[in-house]
Amino acid sequence: PPPGLLQVVKQCVRVPVFVMIRPRGGDFLYSDREVEVMKADIRLAKLHGADGLVFGALTEDGRIDTELCTALLAVCRPLPVTFHRAFDMVHDPLVALETLISLGFERVLTSGCDSSALEGLSLIKRLAEQAKGRIVVVPGGGITERNLQRILEGSTASEFHCSARSARDSGMKFRNPNVAMGASFSAPEYSIKVADVAKVRTLNAIAKNIL
């Protein structure tokens, strides 16, 4: 997020806010210039009150980029750091988990190297068992109020990640149907994705009942 968004969010909520550091979409193999941007973003996030950071970086052969991660972790400290779903693109997740533990990451977000946490549930459970409390394994990817109970029970996870969003129609009365602000596959201009309070409360209730 830009610093302005982080600043306003911190004024509005009391829960810890972790900021994702990702200079672009696509893969997790970063150039030297992109690394400069990531370091600058980390410093700005810390300056504006981030409670933790989230990032991921891989080598071209699908392993954790230990050199880059070590450098970024040094900039992040003393804040806790989560390795995000770049983990789902690694060559060997069991080896990668040990690497993250040795580097000092507090959490790893994963869908179990599959298209959703539900489909990757068996690997998430295996990772949690391997971790033995040395790192928090956080299921994420396609989690909804319909499958959260099954994912938490099946993975033995104590935390989870989801967007809990819904679409809200734009308040614009005049609409130009001939212009699209972006690629054809992007979200329509007159539909806005927002955090859904009802979904968050439902998910919270399900989690509290299980945990």
Automatic annotation (TrEMBL):
SUPFAM superfamilies: CutC-like
Function: May play a role in copper homeostasis. Can bind one Cu(1+) per subunit.
Family: Belongs to the CutC family.
Protein name from the UniProt record: Copper homeostasis protein cutC homolog
Location relative to the cell: Cytoplasm; Nucleus
Membrane-spanning parts: none
Keyword DNA-binding appears in the UniProt entry: no
InterPro entries to which the protein is assigned, alphabetical: CutC-like (IPR005627), CutC-like_dom_sf (IPR036822)
Keywords associated with the record: Copper, Cytoplasm, Metal-binding, Nucleus
A cellular component term, taken from the record's GO annotations: cytoplasm
One function term, GO molecular function aspect: copper ion binding
Assembly mode: Homotetramer.
